[in-house]
Design goal:
Layout lengths: L1 H27 L8 E25 L10 E14 L2 E6 L3 H9 L4 E13 L19 E13 L4 E19 L7 E7 L2 E6 L4 H8 L5 E14 L8 E13 L4 E16 L15 E5 L2 E6 L4 H9 L4 E12 L5 E12 L4 E10 L8
Parallel strand pairs: 3-5, 8-10, 13-15
Antiparallel strand pairs: 1-2, 1-4, 1-16, 2-3, 4-5, 6-7, 6-9, 6-11, 7-8, 9-10, 11-12, 11-14, 12-13, 14-15
Length: about 375
């Protein structure tokens, strides 16, 4: 009798355990309320950076000293960073000392920042009274847009960015000893009476290909990135050699150098007054752009659409790109002329959003 009772009890217990397990499994199988995916919004914002310092009321605090029973009022000073674009304000979260230090330097300036956009609840602070304190009114929390900043940089009102691209044919030396005493060897190309230091930018395949042409004439394509300083003991002064970051190389013939200067310019577009002088001034550029006191002439060639756009943008801030060259007018004036390839109005302040999906665990326990 007692054995049958024990067995029946164990069977009932096992049945309860099985039902409980099924219940837990069914609860775990339910999807997340917001689904298994999380939307991530990446933003790029250009606008004026602003630092906001507020005094926030925390409420009365009674004094521990019984001789002064009147309570005191607690306040704290809260500092936050904001950026406003077209009437909409975004709070900025700067999670590193480097970003905070950079923001202090760029306060009040136009900046370009990148980060992740989040929507958060914020306590709304009561308005400030005439004496600077806040009245005791509780406001409901509000939703605010917060950008977790990853990168921030200043936006220049005007600039000129030059990129010098070269094609050089000359003799390759993969182990040139430069200066005295020579601390290390460098790969160089000698063309004519000039020497260029080569930068392979950690491209092992390109360096290996160059080893096969060591001591031979090759033609390289690349970009000028700076100067290499050659030190020579007991010799006053220093020699600087151009550094070329290589993009490609192939067997060459003879020695030559072709150089192309590509520019990107931001500045105010001007239209010269109608020409009324003599023939010697008639070839001066019609459109001009001045940056930091330096004026460049613009040439549109057969690009009539760009020319028409330039007429519409006269007197406005524009961003253009093209190739730079020197030209001498009939009057003997040497102009820096930009053969314009692209022209657009300055975008000013903007917000650009990019949405992506991040997969999250699809199963969550529901209690």
């Amino acid at each position: 009798m007692w054995k049958s009772t024990i067995l029946a009890g164990m069977g009932f217990f096992l049945a309860l355990t099985a039902n409980g397990a099924q219940g837990d499994e069914s609860r775990l199988a339910r999807p997340r309320p917001d689904g298994p995916f999380k939307k991530i919004i990446s933003v790029q914002i250009q606008g004026k950076l602003r630092k906001v310092v507020e005094t926030v009321y925390l409420g009365p605090r009674p004094l521990k000293d019984k001789r002064f029973p009147m309570p005191t009022i607690d306040f704290i000073t809260v500092t936050r960073w904001e950026i406003t674009v077209k009437g909409k304000t975004y709070e900025l979260e700067l999670n590193s000392k480097e970003l905070q230090s950079l923001a202090e330097k760029l306060q009040g300036q136009t900046v370009l920042l990148e980060g992740r956009l989040e929507i958060r609840w914020r306590e709304k602070h009561p308005p400030t009274g005439p004496d600077g304190t806040r009245i005791l009114i509780a406001y409901p929390p509000v939703l605010v847009s917060v950008v977790v900043v990853h990168r921030i940089e200043a936006v220049l009102a005007e600039f000129v960015k030059e990129t010098v691209s070269v094609v050089i044919s000359g003799k390759l030396n993969m182990n040139a000893r430069l200066g005295y005493p020579a601390r290390d060897s460098q790969a160089v190309v000698t063309s004519g009476d000039k020497t260029y230091v080569l930068d392979f930018a950690n491209n092992a395949a390109l360096r290996l290909a160059a080893q096969m042409f060591d001591g031979k004439t090759i033609a390289i394509k690349g970009t000028f990135t700076g100067f290499y300083t050659v030190h020579t003991m007991c010799v006053p002064g220093q020699t600087q050699l151009p550094i070329i970051r290589i993009e490609s190389l192939e067997p060459g013939r003879g020695e030559f150098l072709h150089q192309t200067i590509s520019v990107q310019i931001k500045g105010k577009l001007d239209l010269a007054a109608a020409w009324t002088g003599t023939r010697e001034h008639q070839d001066e550029p019609e459109f001009r752009i001045t940056v930091n006191g330096k004026t460049y002439g613009l040439e549109f060639g057969d690009k009539q659409a760009l020319r028409n756009l330039a007429y519409g943008l006269k007197g406005k801030t524009v961003v253009l790109s093209g190739t730079l060259e020197l030209r001498r007018t009939f009057a003997g004036t040497v102009w820096q002329i930009v053969a314009v390839q692209n022209l657009q109005a300055d975008s000013g302040d903007f917000v650009r959003q990019t949405e992506s999906i991040d997969f999250c665990c699809p199963l969550v326990p529901v209690r």
